[in-house]
## 1
Amino acid sequence: MNKHKPCSHGIPALRPTNIRRAANGETFDITSDYWEVSATGSIAKFNFEWCTEVLSPLMKNALKEVVAYRLESNLASTISGELTAFKRPCLWIQAQANSPVANISLEDVLAYRLDGGTKNDYSMRNLVATWLDLGFTAIKKEAADFINKIPPQSNEKTHILTLDPVSGPYLDGEIAIVDRELQVAYETGEINNAQYVLVQMFRLYGQRSSMVANLKLRDVKTPKHHGEETSVRFEILKQKGSQAQRFGPKRPAPMLFTHALEAYLDELTGETAASEWDEDQPLFRAKTDVFLTRRHANDIRRSTKVKGQIAVGYKAHMTAERARARYQTILASLRIISPRTGEPMVFNQLRERHTIATIMAMRGCTAEEIAAWLHHTSPGSCEAYIELASRHHQLMSSLLDGKMVHVAGRFLGQVIEDNPDDFEVGSVITATEADGAPDLGTCASGGCSALDSLAAPYACFLCRHFNLSIESELDPLLRLLAGRKAEAKMHGDDEYSRELNRHIAAIFAAKKSQHQARKERESTA
C-alpha cells in the first residue's frame, strides 16, 4: 500500500479507494463512520461518530486513514485498544478548548497527562507513530515523542504470583475437590453430558472462551465415531492474516471425558454416523436449553432466543461471553466450597488458563512451551508462571519438607486485632531498619532466629507464627523493597531480584488479608 503524501497545505485527504482490507482479509468502507472486523472470535467495532464533535474534519479523516492502515497488518482487537486509548486525550483536549481539536501539541499532552491521564495511555503510541509515518502533521513531533516515552503497564501479574483466591490459579486441593464434585454430579445426573463436556473443555485445555465457542464437529474425534483416540483441536484466533484459519495441535482427552463427549455427540447428531455429519455445525450451539441448570419454563424459552455469533461461518455458535457465562453457571450450581478460603469458589475461564500454565511451569515447561499450549502471541506473558514455579521449588524443602503444595508468594501468618504497642518487647517486628519505622506485629512463638539474623521482617510474612497487626502500615516496607529491586536490576543481580519478588508478593498478599480483616471488623461493628 502506498503511504499518504500530504498536499501543499498539509491537509490529509481520504485515499481514492474507499474499500479497505483488514489483516484477516475482511473489507470495510473507510467513508463510513462504522466498521466491523472479526477479532478473536468476536467483532471489533470501530465507531467514528464521536469524531464529528470532538475532532476537526481533517483530524477525523487522518485518524480514519491511520486506523485503516494499521488494520492492514495488525489484529483488529489490538487496533481497537489503540483507538480507545487515543480517544481519551482527544475528548479531554476538546473539553478544555470547547472546540474541535485541529492539532495536538506537546503542551496539550502534558496537560492531559497531569490532569486526566490513565495507565492505558501507553497503548496509543503505535497509532501516533503511524500518524507521523504517513506524513500527517496535526500531531506535533514533540507530542509524539513524549507519547512514545509513556511507560507501559507493569507486566508483573500479582494475582498469579500471590495465588489470589479470586483471580489466580486454583490450588491443588481446589482442583481435587472440583474434580470430585463434578464426577459425582455427572454420575448422579445432576449435570448432563453437554454441561460436563463444556465445563471440562475449559478445565482440561485452558483455552480462551472464544476458542471453545468456535469449536465445530470437525474439531473433535472419538473412538466410537471415528475409530481413533479422542482428541480436540482449537482454531487459533490471535493471529495475523498470513496465519488465518490455522489450528493448534490435537489435544488428548481422559477416559471419563471421552465417554461424556461421545454421549453428547450422539445427542447432538441424533446418533448418526460421523460420515453423515455436517462438520461445520457448532459443537456448542447458541440457541439450546441443554446447558441450563434450572428447568423453569421461562428459562427454557429464553435459552432458545439467545443471540449467537454473527461472523460468517459461526452464526449458530454461542458467543465467547455466552460460553463463559454457561461454564460459570454450571460450576456455581454445584455450590463447591474452597478448602482454602472456606467460602464458595470463584470460577472463571482465566483462572483455568492460569492453573494449566502454573501446572506446566511446575513440571518444568519453559515460557515458550506454555505460550504454545495456550496460544499466547508472546512468551513474555507467561514469565509470571515460570517465576511462580521458581519460587515454589525454592520454598518446598525449607518450609514444608518437600511436599508439593502451592505456597510461594503467599502470606502464611495471620492478621490480629492487637496494636503493635501492646506486643511484648523483644518480639516486635519492625517494617524497616530506618529510625521511626512503624512496627508490623510480633511472633506467636515468642521470637525466632529471624529477629536476631536480621531476616525479619522479610521472612516473617512467609512464617505461620507471624502475627500481623490489623493496623500496621506495610507501604514503607514495600517502598524499601522496590528501591532494592531497582538497585538489583541496575547491577544485573537477577537472583537477588527474584528473591525480592517473592517477598514483595507475600507482602501484597498480607495487605489483602489486612483489608479483608478490616472489612469484617466494620461489618460486625
## 2
Amino acid sequence: MTTAGDTESRATEHRPAEPPRPGSRPPGPAPAARGGTAVLVGLATGLLGLGIAELGAALLAPDGSPLVAVGDAVIATLPGPMINFGKAVLGTADKPVLIIIIALVSLAVAGLAGWSELRVRFAGIVPVAVLAGLALFAIGARGPDSALAYVPMIIGSVVAYLILRALLASLRPRQTGPVSAGRRNLLGSTILVAALGAVGTVAGRALAGASQAITEARDRVLLPAPSRPAAPVPAGADLRIPDLTPYVTPNDAFYRIDTALQVPRIDPANWSLRVYGMVEREITISFAELLQKPLEEHLVTLCCVSNEVGGSLIGNARWLGYPIRDVLAAARPKAGADMVLSKSQDGFTAGTPLEVLTDRNRQSLLAIGMNGEPLPVEHGFPVRMVVPGLYGYVSATKWVVELKVTTFAADMGYWTPLGWSALGPIKIASRIDTPRSGVTAGTVMIAGVAWAQHTGIGRVEVKIDNDAWQEARIADVTGPDTWRQWSYEWSASPGNHMITVRATDATGQVQTEQSAPPAPDGASGYHTVSINVS
C-alpha cells in the first residue's frame, strides 16, 4: 500500500533541479578560495617551468640558465653604491641571495599567472610571456655560444603554462553536479608538480655549480713549459686566403663529437689514470705527477670517422702532453697484447693498436694542453688522448681515466659492436674550402686543405669540368701529422663549372675516387663543388 508520504518522496526524487537563484553561488569552493588555490597552482607550475629551464640549461647550454642570466642583467644595471652595499652586508653570499630573490620574484609572477588564468581564460599567458621574454633577453645579453641556450627557457615556459591550464580546469565554476574528481585531486597534483620543479631547479643549479667549480679549477692550472716544444709553424704554412681554413684551428672552432650527454666535469685534483691489464706492472698517475713529467708539444690534426667528403669534422691544433709510449713502457706490456682499451670518465671506450701507441715515430700523447691553454672542458679537460693517423673513435678518448692493455680478440671499443671497423686509419682526403658559391669571371683562387696523417701530403691536383688534372701549390707544414693547405689560380670563364680536387700522399698513394659513406671505416671519394661564373 502506497502512502501519501511515499508518493511525495518519489515526486521529490524525480523533480528536475531548480536553476540557481539570483545571487546564489554555484557548488564548489568560494571565489576567494578558488583564487588562492589558483595562485598556489601558478606557483607550482612556475617552479616546474624554472626547474625545466635550469636543468635543461645545465645539460644543454650553461649560458641558458635564466636565474644566472637575469642575475647578471640585474648586476649590470644596479648602481655602484648598491652593489658595494650588497657586498659589504652579504659578503660572498651576495650572489646566492640575488639568485634566491630572482627565483622568488619569478614565482610571484607565476602565482599572478595562475590567478589571472582563473579569472579570464588565456590571461595567464601574459605574465608567463613577460617573464620568459625578460629571461630570454637576459640570456641573449650574455652572448650565448649557440641558439641552444634559448631552448630550455622556451620549453619550460610552454610546459608550465599548459600544465597551469590543465590544473585550473577543475576550479572553473560549474552550475550543477558534484565536485569533480579533478578538483579532489588538485592538491595532490599541485604538490607533485611543485616537487618536480624543485628537484629540477636544485639539480640544475647543482650541475651548474659543479661546472663553475671545474671552470675555476681549469683556470688555476698552469701549464709547464714543454721539454720538447713544437716545431715552429713555417711562414708559408698558412696561405691566408679568404675563406680558407686556417692552418691552426682555434679552440672555439674545433669540432666536437663525443657520446657524452653531459660533459664530464673532473677536478684535476681528483683525476688519475690507471694502466692495467696485460702488464708486468700496474701503475696509476695523478694529474700532479703528469705535470711533473717531461712534456712534449706537437701539432696534430684530428679527424672524426663521421666526416663526410668535404666535411668540417676535422681540425689541427698544438697539443701539449706526455708520450703514451712512455706510460706504457713503465707498465711493460706482456707478450701477446695487441690493443689498448682506453676508457673515458663517462664510460666511452676506444680500442687502439698497441703498436701505434708504442711507435717512437708517432707522437701519441696524453694531452693536457691545446693551443697554449689547458684543454677546454668539452675537449677532454683535464686529460685526453691524441693519436696521429687514426680516426677519433679508435684513439682520441677524452676525459681518459683508464688504459687497459689487452687484445682485439678479448675486448672491443664502444663503436665496434655497432658495426664500425675495429681499426681506423685515416684515409687520404682533400677538401675545397673556396669558392663554394658563385664568382665573377676572371682569375679565381681555388683553395682548401688535404690530409694524409702520419704520412703527409705530397701533391694536390685540381680538375675543372672534364679537363686534365692540374697541380696545385701546396703550403709548408710542420710535419706529416697535420693537414696541408693548397691553392690553384683558375682563369674562370662564364657558365656553370665543376671543380674537383684529389690528393696524393708522400709515398705516392693517390686518393681513391671510389665513393664510400663514413660507415664502417671512413668516407672516401673526390670532393666536387658546382660553381656558377657570371
## 3
Amino acid sequence: MAKLKNYNGRYCESEYESAFIAFLQSVGWTYLPGNKIKRCYRDVLIADDFRAFITKANTDLLEEEIEQIYDTVRLVGAESDFATLHKVYKWMVDGIQFTPQSGLPIQVTLIDFETPENNIFHVVNQLTVDYINNGQRENRRPDVLLYVNGMPLCIIELKNPADSHSTIYDAWEQITIRYWRDIPHLLHYCPLACISDGVKTRLGTVRTPYEHFYAWRRVNDADKISTMPFAETETMIKGVYAPERFLEIFRDYIYFQDEIFDCDEREIVCRYPQFFAVRLLKQSIIKSVMEQTGKGGTYFGATGCGKTYTMAFLARQLALRCSDIPEIGSPTIVMIVDRDELQEQGIKLFAKSKEFLNLGEVSIVKSRNNLRQELGSRESGGFYICTIQKFCDRKEDKIGLINDRHNIICFSDEAHRTQLEHSRKIQFSKDADENMKAMVSKPYAKVLKEAFPHATFVGFTGTPIAETYQTFGDEIDRYTMDQAVADGLTVSIKYHPRIAKVLLDTKKVKEIEAYYKTCADDGATEEDIEASKKAMSSMEIILGEPSRLERLAVDIHDHYVSACDKEPDRIQKAMIVCSNRKIAYELLRKFRDKYPEWFEEKKIPDGIEATKEELDELKPMPFMAMVASVGSNDEKEMYNYLGGVKNDRRSKELDAAFKQEKSNFRIVIVVDMWITGFDVPSLTYLYNDSGRYHSIWK
C-alpha cells in the first residue's frame, strides 16, 4: 500500500489527488480525511453525518428510532450485490419507509434534493475498508469518495499523471473488478464512479463497461463544448460535482430497469448531451403547454447521442418535476415512430422502465380505437408507443378527434421523415408486394394535430430539415456527428464509392418507361415523375441486372475477406443494403452459388475460440443471411426462405445472433429492416447498393 504524503494539509498518494480534492472543495465539498472518521474499518458509512441529517430533518423521531434507521441502512442486503445497490439507490432517492413508536408509517428522507444546502457534503480520501479473504483480514483504500449525509454516493479512482504505466483503464479495473470482489459492501452505496489521470476524466457507474465511461464537456446549457483533454477534470467537477448539480443528476439521471429485471444488472448514468437536451426540452415543453403553441421543440441528435434514453430521462422529468404546473401535472406521453422495428426497440426499454418513468401504464398501441379508449379512460399518466402509419387518414376510415387534453406530449422519433406539416400530398409508396404506387393523403402531422388538437409535439431527429422546425418548433439543442466522434460515442465513417457497370438492353429500357407511365396513370404529375427520375436514377430494374449482381457479390466477398484477413483478431460484421426484397434475394442467391461455405450453419466461425458457456448461448447460424419481411405474392423459394408465417420469429432469432459477437452470423442483407436504430458495436462495414453506385461505409 502506498505511503501517504501531506499535501497542503491533505494526506494523499499524489499531488494530483490533492489537486482533485482542492477542485471539489472549490465547488462546495468539505474535506474529511478517511483516517479521521470514527468507525470500525469494516463500516463504510459516516455515522455522525447520517445521524445529524436524520435528526435535523425529522425532529419528531426519538434517538433510538434514528439508530434503527441507521442500522437498517448499514445492514442492508438483498439477493445479489446489484439488487442491493438498486435497493439502496431507491432509498436515497425516494426515502425509506419507517414506522415509529407513534404507529403511523412515515417516509424518512435520506437526502434533501429540494434544498441542497440542508445536506452534509464530504469529500473523503484514503478510507481504509476491511474485508476477509480466506480467513485473513485484508483491506482496500479507494482514492476519493463523495459522501452525502454519511453515505458514499460516488467512488473516484485517480491515477498519477506522472506515471506513464498507470492509466484510467487500471482505475476502472480497480473499481469494477477488485472492489466489487473484495469490498462490495462499499459499492452498495455508490451508484456513480469516476476515473481520472489528469488528462482524461470520465464518468460512469460502478457497473459501466470501460468503453462506456465518458467525458463531461459542458458546465452550463449555453456553454460551448470543450474537447481539450486537460480541461476534462475541471469541466467534470464543475459540470457534475457541484453539489446542487450532483444531486440533480443523482436523482433523475441514473437509470435502473424495474426491480424485477435486476438480474440483467443494468445501471446507466446520463451523458452530458442527454442531460442538457432534457433540461432544455423540458423548459421548451412547459412554455409550449402554457402558451398552447403545440410546438415543444426539435432535438437534433446525431448517431451515438442516446436518443431513446434521452426520451426516458425527459419523460421522468415531465412526470415527476412538473407537479407545480397544473396544465401538465402527470402527462400522458405518446411516442410516435415510423417503423415497426423502432416500435419494438422502444418497448424493450420502456416496458422495463415503469418505476423510472413513474407514468403507470407502458404499452404499444395496437390500433386507433385502442389508443382512443386508453386515453379516454385516464386524465393523466401513461406511456404509449405507436407507429405514425396509424394516423394515415383514409376516406373509408377517418381519424377525427382522439383526445383533446392539454397534457398529452407527443415524442416524434425520426421527425425528419414522415411527421411533417408540409409533406407532399402525392407520395410514392410500396404495397405489401413491393409494387410501386402513388397515393394521395393528408400529411401525417396535420392528421396528428386533428387527433390531438391541444397536445404538444416534440421532434427528435438526426437529420433535421426546414419542415421539421415548421412542425415541431425551433431547435432546442444539438449533438452533431463530429461531437459524437470526438467523444468516442461513435467512430468516424469512411466512405468508399465503387462503380458497378450495367449494360441494359432495349427491353429493360422499355420496362423503365412503362413504370413511369403507371405512375402517371395513378395520379402523379409530370413534376412528380421528373423529380422521381432524378432521385431514383438507379431503378430496381437496373440494380437487379443479373451480371451486375454477380460482380457485386464477388466485389463484396473479396473486400470483406481481405479486410478480415488484415485484422484477424478483430470481429468485423457487415450489412449489405439493397433497394428491394427481390433484388436482395437475388443477390443472396449469387452469394450462395459462388460461396456455399457461407451458408453452412455453425455456432462460431472456424478459428474462433469460445467457452462452453458462450457456446451454450449460441445457435447454429449461416455466415450470411437475409432479413426482410414477407409479401403475400412472394415466389415460393423466397417466401419459405424468409420464414413464411414465422417470419417475425426468424427475424428475432437472427437479430439476437447478429448482436452476439462470436456468432457465426457475420453478414446480413437487408432492405429496410435493421437500418435504423440497430446497435451492433462489431458492425464495421455497410455495403450500400441502393443507388447507382454501390459503396462501402466503414
